Amino acid sequence: MTEAAAGGAPAGPTETAWAAAVAAVRDLPADARVLLICHVNPDGDALGSMLGFGLGLRRLGVRDLQATFPGPPEVPEPFRWMPGVDLLVPQDDAYPAPDLVICFDAASESRLGDLADRLDTAGTSLVLDHHASNSGFGRISLVDPHAAATSVVALELLDRLGVTLDADIATGLYVALTTDTGSFRFEATTPAVHETAARLIATGIRPGDISRRIFDTRPFGAVRLFGEVLGRAALEPAAAAGHGLVWTYATRDDLVRHDQPTYVLEALIDSVRCTAEADVSCVVKQSGEAEWAVSLRSKGAVDVSRVAVALGGGGHRFAAGFTGRGALDEVVGRIRAELATGAVTPVA
Known about the structure:
By secondary structure, this protein is of the alpha/beta class. Helices cover about 35% and strands about 20% of the residues.
């Protein structure tokens, strides 16, 4: 039975859920196998939360420990330097029946891809997340939609487990926090977020170096690719009930032409969302023959998570996504339709 709030988005983890999560870790036998999983196409919050927490489990003495994510075992270049990457294994090498599986930053089982079956084969399952659209999967659910990043939930659990922070653990948690707050520029940035960042920085990590690696470094081929994709951006001022939509797309051929891996496109949405005339921004990235990974952002007038959920995805009011299938025009047409039907209510 899931320890999540009943009906709608969870209000936050209950004390019962926290206690169950602590017990799930504390009561592990010495030879227990623990598997950490984050979502497909992992971002900074997914990887940072998972690896930071994994290093915390190491400090507790957990020996048989793996971390993984669905899909090709390629860690995006901006995150390959992070402490804890040695925990990572390809999904095919992950424990088939771990004693404990812990999932990070995944709003639904579908985001775990072929690894979702570990929820059934594991002795117990624990979910750490901060998406309001979380479906409440897993036996023990620690979902806090008010948290700025999943790493905030991970840090709280580490504290309750009595783990002392060091620079390696803090690095992963800080990467997660700074990426999901847009380097502390997004609406989720609160006084508590800055207090958490200060606590992590106090371990000796270097935020300037981390920010340069994550936000300010990309190959020249990616710069050329961004220029081409931004050049085809379309502005639709009447969309989203007059709040405006700006969107663009990138194909697999674009990536091949500029000799770039798929993950470089994750940062493209930040260049699109700055458009003054549109509240909603969208980047549609080809991931298969007729499959597209869609990123949606809002400046505040529209709750884009409602669009994403209606189209099979999830996320937050200001940042969401889904997987679209069919021709490009069909996928974009569905987005327009959802923005026009009233499925999206203005953010208060």
